[in-house]
Design brief:
The protein has about 475 residues and is mainly beta. The protein has three domains: about 130 residues, Immunoglobulin-like, CATH 2.60.40; about 100 residues, Immunoglobulin-like (Sandwich); about 110 residues, Sandwich (Immunoglobulin-like). It has four helices and 31 strands. Strands 20, 21, 23, 25, 26, 27 and 29 form a seven-stranded mixed sheet that branches. It has a six-stranded mixed sheet with strand order 10-9-12-17-14-15, with no helix packed on it. Strand 14 and strand 15 form a beta hairpin. The protein is globular. The chain starts with a helix and ends with a strand. The N terminus is likely disordered. It binds copper (II) ion.
């Protein structure tokens, strides 16, 4: 019996629920991968010339997040070294349910000073990440979680990981309160157009083809790439004419970006850690929770290559700079001259996965309406019946966005495939997070292969906090 089959058998059915709590690591020797310590910490960074206290997810040597090789075990002890209870979700991995990081599903928050151990197969190679499944995500409790493939780490290709974030000097609680019950501005339009009360609107009302769509709920103080703004960006030394693999993670809580590779045409080679037939482009969208891998062949020129992330529907931007030896790095403003593109499904409808799910008919089909009331700041997911499957079933789920904002929908513990857009069947991307724009319908197929009561939610932190979350459950 293969390792994976053994683990699946051991964890099928009610066995998951009968594990003792607090959780003891499963007595399954996954393999010999050495145990690693990961600490939730408090740290200081400088943003806009001011010091900010944020969270960190760091190994004892200070490296951020975790990096594995395909075939490794996720053999990790997580320690909460902060003064607050918390919980961390391994976004993109498909662990057994008790190792997922959502409070009460099934384990409670990790208390101050507490340690929790994990040991399961890390799974397929891909660009993943980890983040708090609480409002603490806003305070930068997020880090890369990379699973390198057997062919990665080629000597002729340099890996560059970029973690994007939106940053505010306000606490997440203050930001949420500002959205749900802050003082109302004089005109309804402020609410209808989705800007935070009192902040300038970034509605797409004035953009052609996007009537009444809402883009950004919050005006942030900064947009970060690897904790830094373009005032003082990370400058990565690269080889002139070299090959670079960008692993880009949108860890922002409420901001979608378009990656701008300037005049170098990149090749999109993976989405959410799943390989795709390469798509060439210089502007590639990435919504909250999603990841994109872009392969670049740098020209043999002695100049710097900025890799920018353009805020959706607004001129703010962030990014890093790739710098061959000797190249001069010029200053790039934190605000561009034009708003970043509004994310749509043009790319999504073209993506072809290298490893699609097996072709088969759905055993169960569900319909879910994504609803929103901007004025009350209430968000919801309404299904015709509870989403439930029996292990081994193929489930299809059609999400219909009846609200005025786009929602990046994330299913825990599984990968899924986009199989229809507005009812038109496609062999679309394999992912864990898919953007559902307003008035669009997206159908995903999921194989029910990982029993549990899994979180299924919008990856806009404040939409989730305001109700946009449900469960993908299993019946035994
Ligand atoms: Cu949402």
């Amino acid at each position: 019996m293969k390792r994976r089959e053994f683990l699946a058998a051991a964890l099928s059915g009610a066995a998951v629920l009968s594990l003792p709590s607090p959780f003891a690591p499963p007595a399954l020797a996954v393999n010999g991968t050495a145990a690693r310590n990961l600490r939730v910490t408090r740290r200081s960074i400088e943003v806009n010339g001011k010091s900010a206290s944020v969270f960190g997810l760091e190994q004892p040597d200070g490296s951020k997040g975790l990096r594995f090789k395909e075939g490794d075990a996720f053999n990790v002890t997580l320690e909460n070294r902060t003064a607050e209870d918390t919980i961390v979700h391994w976004h993109g991995l498909t662990p057994p349910w008790q190792s997922d990081g959502v409070a009460g599903a099934p384990l409670p928050l990790l208390k101050v000073g507490e340690k929790r151990s994990y040991n399961f197969p890390v799974g397929r190679a891909g660009t993943h990440w980890m983040h708090a499944h609480t409002l603490q995500e806003q305070a930068l409790m997020a880090a890369p979680l990379i699973v390198a493939g057997r062919d990665d780490d080629a000597p002729d290709e340099q890996e560059v990981v970029i973690l994007l974030h939106d940053f505010s000097f306000k606490t997440p609680e203050e930001l949420l309160a500002g959205l749900t019950n802050g003082p109302l501005s004089s005109h309804d339009a402020v609410n209808m157009h989705g800007s935070q009360h009192g902040a300038p609107s970034t509605s797409a009302m004035d953009m052609p083809g996007m009537p009444g769509m809402d883009l950004n709920d919050i005006e942030y103080d900064a947009y970060l790439a690897n904790d830094r703004t373009l005032d003082d960006p990370e400058v990565v030394a690269v080889e002139r004419g070299g090959r670079v693999l960008l692993r880009i993670i949108n860890g922002a809580t409420a901001t979608a970006f378009t990656i701008d590779t300037g005049d170098i045409r990149g090749e999109l080679v993976a989405v959410d850690g799943h390989d795709v037939k390469p798509v060439k482009g210089t502007r590639l969208p990435v919504s909250m929770g999603q990841r994109i891998d872009i392969r670049l062949e740098l020209p043999r020129e002695e100049r710097a290559f900025p890799i920018l992330a353009l805020r959706e529907g607004a001129p703010e931007r962030t990014g890093i700079v790739l710098r061959p030896t000797g190249a001069k790095v010029s200053k790039i403003g934190v605000t561009g001259s034009k708003p970043g593109p509004v994310l749509d499904l043009a790319l999504e409808s073209r993506i072809e996965p290298l490893a699609p799910l097996a072709l088969r008919d759905a055993d169960r089909s569900f319909t879910m309406r994504l609803t929103g009331d901007m004025t009350a700041y209430r968000w919801g997911l309404a299904t015709n019946e509870p989403i439930e499957a029996v292990p081994g079933q193929r489930v299809e789920l059609t999400m219909i966005n009846a609200s005025m904002m786009a929602h990046p929908m994330h299913l825990h513990g599984h990968r899924f495939q986009v199989v229809a857009i507005d009812g038109r069947r496609i062999v679309g991307a394999v992912r864990d997070t898919v953007l559902v724009p307003p008035a669009k319908s997206m159908t995903i197929a999921v194989d029910a292969d990982n029993p549990g009561q899994w979180a299924f939610h919008c990856h806009h932190l404040y939409h989730m906090a305001a109700g946009m979350m449900t469960t993908f459950g299993y019946r035994t």
